[in-house]
Design brief:
- This protein is an all-alpha fold.
- It has a domain of 71 residues.
- It has 14 helices and no strands.
- Helix 13 runs antiparallel to helix 14.
- The radius of gyration is 29 Å and the shape is elongated.
- The N and C termini lie far apart (77 Å).
């Protein structure tokens, strides 16, 4: 009987393994799988958020709402409370709808550290009166587009935005400028210019702002072309669509085109030839 029982057990076990059953383990993850998981301080995120909202009860209006928000924030792993609170503190400095404030702060909690930081810096740069002084809706739109909604590197977008608006709004001495040209565009146009340049860049060149300023000043200062400011801006934007080598191709082509030993073109012809060469900077 004993031997028959053993045979039956072995037969059942063999059938179980053949059917894909694992009778020795449950749904536990492997060590390798666990190593790849993020380990979150969820309780700390919940408590930190709730205690902050209890101190700022006007933001939520009730204990129940505060607990709901804290619960949502705790789902976003370690650092979520810090991102939530720092964003809420920034937005709380201005006259701001509480529901919209909570929405933005919760977006920051869910986002990466890089996106959250980019949102705060771009919003502050766009909104405060010693910076671009945009209205709150415009500042929020730009900050969201270049951080939470941005598909590329938000830290890169932040750096380029700051460098471009510092130059075109003359907020501080640009480290890339020759110092002899200023853009006479208003701050709203300046913000839009920066946003467009960043969002239309196909390759995220490391020095987008620097390249833009150099092309613009090359046309306005070095070549003293008869181009208007708007035309020079438009050409610089167009060239930069074609990647990080486009600027050098543009400069080389322009120099050769206007040279009497080269193509001996007029200024207008030189610009058009340079644009054509720059457009070929990206191979298909």
């Amino acid at each position: 009987m004993r031997s028959l029982s053993c045979l039956l057990v072995l037969a059942i076990s063999s059938h179980a393994f053949a059917a894909g059953w694992n009778i020795f383990s449950s749904n536990k993850k492997s060590i390798a799988e666990l190593a790849n998981d993020k380990h979150c301080s969820s309780t700390r995120e919940y408590v930190s958020t709730l205690e902050y909202l209890r101190d700022e009860q006007k933001l939520v209006g009730s204990e129940a709402k505060a607990r709901y928000v804290a619960d949502e924030v705790s789902k976003s792993c370690t650092g979520a409370a810090k991102r939530f609170i720092s964003t809420a503190k920034l937005l709380n400095k201005i006259e701001f709808n509480n529901e919209e404030l909570l929405k933005m702060a919760m977006n920051a909690a869910k986002a990466s550290e890089e996106k959250s930081e980019s949102f705060k810096i771009i919003f502050a740069k766009s909104y405060f009166d010693d910076e671009l002084d945009l209205n709150v809706d415009s500042a929020l739109k730009i900050a969201e587009e270049l951080s939470f909604s941005f598909k590329g590197d938000a830290s890169w977008a932040k750096e380029q935005f700051v460098d471009i608006v510092d130059y075109c709004a003359d907020l501080s001495k640009s480290k890339f400028s020759l110092g002899k040209a200023k853009m006479s565009i208003n701050k709203i146009e300046c913000a839009k210019l920066a946003s467009d340049l960043i969002q239309n860049s196909l390759t995220e060149p490391k020095h987008l702002a620097k390249d833009f300023i150099e092309i613009y000043e090359y046309l306005i200062i070095k070549k003293k072309s008869e181009l208007s400011q708007a035309q020079a801006i438009s050409i610089a934007k167009e060239v930069l669509q074609f990647g990080p080598t486009a600027k050098d191709n543009f400069f080389q082509a322009y120099e050769y085109a206007e040279n009497k030993k080269g193509l001996a073109y007029s200024a207008v012809e030189s610009v058009n030839f340079a644009k054509k060469m720059a457009a070929r900077s990206l191979s298909k």
